[in-house]
Amino acid sequence: MIARQFIEAIPHSRELGMQLDEIGGGYAVVSMPWDARFVGDPKTGVIHGGAVSALMDTCCGAAVISAEKTPGVTATLDLRIDYMRPATPGQRIVARATCYHVTRSVAFVRAVAHDDDAETPVASAAGAFTAGAGEDRRPSTEALS
Amino acid sequence: MKRPEPVQVIKQRRDTALARLVSGVPYIAWLGIEFERKGDELTATLPFTDKLVGNPMLPAIHGGVTAAFLESTATMELAWQMLWAEVESKQLDPEQITAETMPRLPKTIDFTVDYLRAGLPRDAYARARVVRSGRRYASVQVEAWQDNRDKLFAAATGHFLMPARDD
Hints:
The structure holds two protein chains of two kinds.
Chain A: H1 2-8, H2 11-15, E1 19-24, E2 27-32, E3 39-41, E4 46-47, H3 49-66, E5 76-83, E6 93-102, E7 106-114, E8 123-130
Chain B: H1 7-23, H2 26-31, E1 34-38, E2 41-46, E3 53-55, E4 60-61, H3 63-88, E5 107-115, E6 124-133, E7 137-145, E8 152-161
Helix pairs in contact in B: 1-3
InterPro entries (chain B): HotDog_dom_sf, TesB_ACOT8-like_N
Domain Acyl-CoA thioesterase-like N-terminal HotDog (chain B): 60-158
Protein name (chain B): Thioesterase
């Protein structure tokens, strides 16, 4: 129930068909189905790295907000993704993220993604997210002038 | 003396090659990314749409969209530079580039995005710079901005595996 609300609240994650499978205590599992619209290499049908990035980012963010001492919102400060192998076309991609350290203002996260072969990761991620009030992350009006 | 080719012919050859290359990637079309060309320089545009939103309260563009936009810009820049000489020398006929015959695109090894400010609900722009491109590996930097060119909202660096060029 809460899981569905989480994805419903993030338009882009909903568009990508993401599903929150597990969340709590700084750990989250988010998965995404294979979809022809998200293909990056038409010859092989492999999903674009960008869609995997969106999955990783969503999963890492979920892990952060579920961690103790973090507010219910967060923003990505930086995210590095390593692509180990192409995800097998037609298979779901499952991301698992752990928020392994939280300071007053920063949450550190690691994530791994795999397809049906859970033993061999498709990609891994490491990132830093905001964990404070994050005043300076709100869109400023200065750009309007 | 040989007469130079009419400018329209050259432009059309380049634009066709670019359009074929870009339209060959379904995910780029789904996100709505467009590429504009001036000479060999590319600028990517991501027109804002509601499906790109990550935080509806602000609202702000999803971090994953930003990453995908920058990665697509980097990949296209590399692929474009790879094909440029062949298009110019007419070794490659742009009309022959189809989903089946499309040259293999560079594969991302790793990609790191710095989120410098929230992505506003407006169009975003990006340009990539190939820092180093060898036979097997390439290193690319990308900058993305919205209203002001000097105020980047994201920057990225990535490494790519170049496709074998014997196919």
